Amino acid sequence: MKKLLVMICMMFGCVFAAKATGDKSAKSKAVVTARAQHLSDEMIKQLRLNNYQAKKIREINLQVSEQVTAIEQQFDGDQQKVEELCKNVYAERDMFLENVLSTVQYNDYFGDRNVYRTVDQKFMGSLNNQNAGSIASSVKADAGDMRVSIN
Fold first, then answer.
1. Within a domain: residue 8?
2. Where would you tag: which of 36, 44, 77, 94 has the fewest CB atoms within 10 A of its CB?
3. Burial class (CB in 10 A: 0-12, 13-18, 19+), 43
């Protein structure tokens, strides 16, 4: 009987652990997609891209967002290492963009690279503030009501 109870508890533990991990990766994927989408929309608008270029820009920015987000998560406390590794990713993006954009568009992009990086950082900061605010408000509400809700 004890073995059965232990096995059932282990099974539920594994199921809940897998569920929690899946939710985290789904949130991470959503953040990466939103990050790429926001930056792509900004570039499409500022550089006046056609449909083909817009599609390629979205693909490139999604790939770059995945790489940059992975670097930021892996080296969370070491900002210098994050900057160094992201610089390589951005240089690779520049090479891809040079093949997609016209000469005039690429020159405009190249001159405004820091502006696009700042737009991306502000967007990620706003996402982090939203997440922190929603967590803080739910903790405050739970403390006041003394009720716990599991989503």
1. no
2. 77
3. buried
Q: Which residue has the tokens 């891809």?
A: 96
Q: How far apart are CA 5 and CA 80, in angstroms?
A: 50
Query: pTM for the full model?
Result: 0.69
Distances (CA, A) of 100 to 50, 58, 96, 109, 111: 11, 11, 7, 12, 16
Domain holding 56, by residue range, is 48-123
Alpha helices in 1-151 (DSSP H): 2-47, 51-74, 79-100, 103-111, 113-145
Structural domain includes residue 134: no
Domain count, the chain: 1
